[in-house]
Amino acid sequence: MKLLSLIVICILFYLNITINEVEGHHRNCILLAKDIYDSATKELSVAKDRQMLVVTNIPYTIRHRQECAVIVEELSRLTGASQSKGNLIILQDSPTRPPFVYLYYPHRDKAIYIELDKEVKSIKTRYPKQKIRTLLSKEDHFEDLKRERAFKGNEYRLIMITSLWTKGLINNDIINAVRLHNHYCPGVTSGYHIGNFILDNLPLSEGQGYVFIALPMWCKDDALQVMLDISPGKRSMYAIPLKDSEKACLKEEAKDIAGIVFRYNRVAKEGDWVVLSYEWDKVIKDAGASDSMRSLTNAVKLTHYMMSARDIYKKYVAIIKTAKFNPNETPEDYIGIGINTLEKLGLYKEGCK
Ligand SMILES: [Zn+2]
User: Fold this and answer.
1) 81-90, 135-144, 251-260, 315-324: which has the minimum mean pLDDT?
2) Per the structure, how many domains does the chain have?
């Protein structure tokens, strides 16, 4: 009996230490959030109650210090930034990357980049000499920023998000897509266009769900995942790459193919499929941009144009071909080992294998 009591006391003692330790870490993380906020407000001379943009990868990069995810909540409380207001953006990131918080204060057009060590114990602050509008005005300024590694390799994604946010062009669909895709770019915006086309023109009937084949795949497919609630794990999304030699085999009407959307009822085993195209050349031309996607100023020009109106997608997304399923057919009959999806859809040239 004595031994049992001793064991119970030891367990309780151990649990108490562990709980205290976790609570201690938790408190330190809250203090760290305060340090981040104080550095930002001091460096950027933020006036009280002014809006800031906050971008962070913290929930994805502090895997072994989960209690520190509270930093995001605390920063939201201190800055007033929130996901629903569209000025708190959490980016998915590689777990090996350093955690960071980026804060942009539009009133002074200045940004600050704060990196945390992997143990989440200290912060290092960096801020670019240039104002953000200066960076966006000339490619050379942005190239300088990249060379300086002012945001430790996050320059493109942070400036792209800032440029869209300052123009008031950001919305929930884009924020959700950017979170998964981990950056904002013209490619993910084309997915937003295709998603809007599908939602507006290809509604589901009772019992149906979307299944999408990304063919070929590009950044767009991450926007489609969040807009249509499709994913490989749910058997509602597949992806097929397209080699140049295979592209050469596409029939003329399919040269701008972006993917195939199925509207399918898995219980009734019926539905239809629609092959969609996306006209990249046309959108680039209409925006007065070029196809140089590595150029920041070009990507900004293109994306601002692409986000300038909700229904702008109508000019660039089109239906190539559509048909109903044969009896008992499933979307998986169109994709798999040994199946040439394009041939099955009648979009491959004669003689191509
Ligand atoms: Zn992208």
Assistant:
1) 135-144
2) 2
